[in-house]
Design goal:
Blueprint (H helix, E strand, L loop, with lengths): L2 H65 L2 H4 L3 H14 L7 E3 L5 E4 L13 H9 L7 E2 L2 H7 L4 E2 L5
Antiparallel strand pairs: 1-2, 3-4
Amino acid sequence: MTLLSRLFVLVAVALLPAIAIQTHNEFDLRRAREVDVQNQALSLAKLAASDQQQIVQGIRQVLVALSELPLIKARDGQACNAYLAAMQRRFPAFLTFIVTDLNGRSFCDTNELNKPISIAARAYFATVLQTGAFTVGEFSTDLLRARHHGPQRHIPRPLP
C-alpha cells in the first residue's frame, strides 16, 4: 500500500465520525420538522373546527330568536313569509328558511311557490321530535324540486 493510499484511508477514517454526526443531525432535523408540520396541521384543524362551531352557534342563535317571534308562534303565514324574506336578504348565507308544525308541514318559508313542504320523513325531524334538542339536518339538493318531482337524494351530514 502506497503512502498516498494510506493517507486517503487515514483521512477517510478521520472523517467517518464527522459524517456520522452530520447524518444523525440531518435525521434529527427531519424528525423535528415532521413534528412541527404535524403540530401546524393539528392547529389548523382545531382552528377550522372552532370556526365551524362558531358558525353552528350563530345559526342556533338565529333559529332560537326566530322561534320566539310572535308571528311564528301565531302561525301567521303571510307576516312570517315577509319577515323570513327580509331575514334572507340580510343573511344571504341562509339559502332557505322553512318553519314547520309538529307534523313536519311548512306554514312559512322563503320559497316563492307558496305550497307546503313536508319534512316529516326526514331523520333529523324525527330526532328533533324525540329529543327536543337542536339538531343539524342533512344536505338536501332541493326541497322545491321535491314538491314537483318527488323526493331527492340527500347526503347525510354528521352532527358537529
